[in-house]
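The protein record minuted underneath.
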Amino acid sequence: MKKYIAEFLGTMVLVLFGCGTAVVCGGFTGGTGSGYLGVVAIALAFGLAIVAMAYAIGDISGCHVNPAVSLAVWINGKMTTTDFIGYVIAQIAGAFAGSGILKLITVCSDLEGAGANGYDELSGVGLNLGGAIVVEVVLTFVFVMTILGVTRTEKTSHMAGIVIGLTLTFVHLIGIPLTGTSVNPARSLAPAIFAGGEALSQVWVFLVAPLVGAAIAGIVHKMLFAEKKA
């Protein structure tokens, strides 16, 4: 139960501070200048949230705070099916808690939005559906491969929090103008439900594509590790 509570808290912090920064910055409106400064701020918020939580709850749950990460870890046989299900439930609940707190903040201010992902009109650069799927699969693949790699041995695991946080930051730098960057189904589901409308109708992309990218990363990592071990 401690692991599930840790995943709940970690995901809540990630969504609150990451999506909260997106709301405060007004999201990405395209072009350069203030729009790009907003991208940097949002990317850093997501990355720093992961760094903070990695050192806060990493020893308890591994700080997945992302169903896609848990899927890849499960594929590699490093967690049981029961824990996988428990992690995903805790992560989704944490995401809703984070979005709920953000909603309380916005209704008490002039802020609007929930930090939801999107494509077409909801993309900062008008990325279409096909492009959004490709972006989320590729970015999630890179992110999850990094996580699996840096946590594989004790030689690198001590620096995992920093490496994972920086990787999440750099995938956000390119992904925010395109889709808002999901790479995390829990992070996408809760804000979409709070936002409603077009964001909710598009959320399936940000549930499916990250899971596909994570599954590919999990399989590729498992194959590469098996070949090296042999």
User: Anything to note?
Assistant: Residues 29-34 have pLDDT under 50 and may be disordered. The two ends are 37 Å apart (CA to CA). The longest helix spans residues 197-229.
